[in-house]
Design brief:
It is a single chain. The protein starts with a strand and ends with a helix. Strands 1, 2, 3, 4, 5, 6, 7, 8 and 9 form a 9-stranded mixed beta sheet that branches. It has a single domain, classed as Roll (2,3-Dihydroxybiphenyl 1,2-Dioxygenase, domain 1). It is α+β, with helices and mostly antiparallel strands. The longest helix is centred in the N-terminal third of the chain and has 12 residues. The protein has 4 helices and 9 strands. A hairpin with a 4-residue loop joins strand 3 and strand 4. It is globular, with a radius of gyration of 15 Å.
Length: 147
Amino acid sequence: MITDIRYNAVMVEDLVEGVQLWKDLFGLEELNEATTNQFGIKAQMLGYAGHPVIEVMTPAGPDTALARMMDERKNPRNPKGEGMYMIALEVDDIEATIKTIEAKGGRIQREEGNSNVAWVHPLGTKMVFIELQQQGSRNMGAAGGGS
């Protein structure tokens, strides 16, 4: 099952402001250029000594899943719906992990053509999106691709 925590992802309304906050408070460095992926997420990976720690992300548009999740989380104490979004976990056997999760009622999403990554839908994990990465792959999340 789980062998490591790869990184955590947070969702913010303003990517530049969010990145600067994590850099200022924790001394993290930018590990890549901010990019937008096929799911409408614009993201920047931050870390230290080349090791990813926090992926800061924002919706690229109002009709994305990330934008909808942020809207659902809005409340008087969190008017922008910002906060924890995802935990990326390394697993020793992604196919066995997926079978176990599905057998226990979890919903899995896959990316066509990438057998090293899968996602556990947040409705089955108390609203935290979980990314599963096959041990040995070098995926850098929405911010940087990889294999």
